[in-house]
Amino acid sequence: MDALIEKLDYIPSDDYDTWLTVGMALKHEGYGWDVWDDWSRSSPKYQEGVCERKWRSFNEQNAGEPATGGTIDHLARLNGWSDDYGEELTLGQTIKDASPTRDYVFVDKTTERENLPEFDKDKYDPRADALAYLNGMFEPEEYIGFNGEFSRKDDRLVPTVNAHSFTAGMVARDVENGPMKKAGVSDLNAQAVREAFGVKGDDGCYVRINPLDGHSDGNSNVTRFANALIESDEDDIETQYAIYRKLELPIRFLVHSGHHSLHAIVKVDALNIGEYRERVTFLYAFCSKNGLHVDEANKNPSRYSRMPGVKRGEEWQRIVARDIGKRSWDEWREWVEEENDTLPEEEPLGDLSDLPDLSPELIGGLLREGHKMLLAAPSKAGKSFLLMELAVCIAEGKPWLGHSVTRGKVLYVNLELDGISCKHRFRDIYDAMGGGSHGSDVLVLNLRGRSVPLDKLAPTLIRRYKDRGLKAMIIDPIYKVITGDENAASDMALFCNLFDSIATECGCAMVYSHHFSKGAASKYGNAADRASGSGVFSRDPDAILAMSELKVDDGKIATYRQIRSGTVTPTGWRVSATLREFPTPPDFDIWFDWPLHVPDEGKVLASTSDVGEQGVAKGQRRKVDHVEELETQFEMETDVSRDNAIATEDLMAVTGFSPSVMKDTVTKSEKLMAATVLTPDAGPVRVVTVNGTECITYGRREYVPKRSKAGSVMKNRDWLLKGGQTSL
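Below the sequence we write its predicted structure tokens.
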């Protein structure tokens, strides 16, 4: 969610001046009137069409000091927002009350129905119901908000009197001291409740679900974040009742609205607005997953519910149940986790003489079906070509790098090439392999420009390909879908678990590629440790193939060409395998002879050393290597950036280049020369929209940025923008 829009959740929309200020600030920041309208709907004073009409009247030229995004930030902070609550949860955080990402499905809505407890109108005591509710929801000294008078506008019921200066004890005394009860007659008891709450007409009565400070009745006036409201108008009452009970929600009161719904007053008992928001987010998502069509407008802590003991038309607003489900929020959350335990049962070791067969081999001696394999290599190793070759070999049942392959259907998830280029590559590979008859078994999913982190992509892949009979799924490359910090072991452990989930659910092997980290060849003797990021990458897969470039001179190329003809200059590579399921084989050598990788059958490369074995001093690196490394890092960093941009100082940090090397290298790169440079005057930067123009800002000052090509003199605080982009 947009950070500024997220802050609106903390600002009450009931106060007119606040409502107006927020509208002007949103317009100043370039948002549409619909954003203001959506936020305004949380107020009981909301009227359809007013926001759109008022929006057109805003004119900053005559408004003095304009309201800005900083104004919204200030209002949000006054109402409990802080940076701790404003940040998105990162992968690996264990806050229980985030929106549920696991199944958390406990009921089948289509089969869940339960009749409400029997209700006898003749014996109903509205006075007792009202007192039970007041005493169970509030302390006597706490102020409460209520409304018993309505008007109708555009077929909507609008509260006209919003009382907030009476304590629960005061109202309870008015209920008790109203017209005296007569045996068998509930009318006088009903009149006592109506008078205590100032009810006029037959539209019932509202009461706010949390206590207030006595000054007003907005979110900022809530003094205790004890309760949340769940309501579903779309589901029939019997279904609502059954689901509420089945889900064991810690319900303080379940109230019949006097119409088509039950109002569940759920105990959340949050310490502050931030915790309240987290718990309500989880609660709403949980109920939605279990079949309730939850009214999303009821999330705010000052929401109105229906007051028991008051008639709404011919039906009573009444208590249906009290204190059902678990006793507290914490107890319920523990129960949810226990019930949603998806771990398999443990198995006793028992008799080992009659074991089931191991999973069949997909790639002979390297990888079994349903297992994971990582291909790690530096740039220009032809990783994508090699994985495309594997896809073709699986579809056609042909050997791959000299290893037998089981034929079957394969999905190639293309994250890097445009769709047409990808097809051309496959055609070139098929032609070089001598063709095939099972091209339809290679499924290509083109996601360039549409990639999302794997935690968002995995559920879609599982849903779409679970029953497609895949032998393998190839994701190329994974840096496009990395979720979290690739250098953080905890983040990468969770990221790698997603591959396990896909493999398990789809019943296929997972194969993916990753690049070597900068300077890895000279830093790590073990090729498997050269993959960029956390060491998890070198420990998690069942098979790792690491490619290291070999020093190949013209004589070796000439010898190779006597064995295999060709017109391109081939490169030599040594492949090191680290295996979990098979004995580790000796390293083997291959040629990348575009468009194929072929085994070094003539042993031409046998005595050739790894380019990285002797190391290369930083100052001796070839300038072409500088260009390749800078372009690779620029592509990776801007692809994972929301704005397709990276600060120059950050690019120097990931490459290790000095300012002089950086400038010299940029001028030799067509890709970087095509980038746009944004230069603020000084200080930390962020980007805002001012009257439709993208600007760089820091503190309270705002700029229209200077723009130039990357070949100009750059400063450390400049921003490089991808391609022909001219603004963040």
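The chain has four domains: 3-86, 121-339, 362-549, 618-721.
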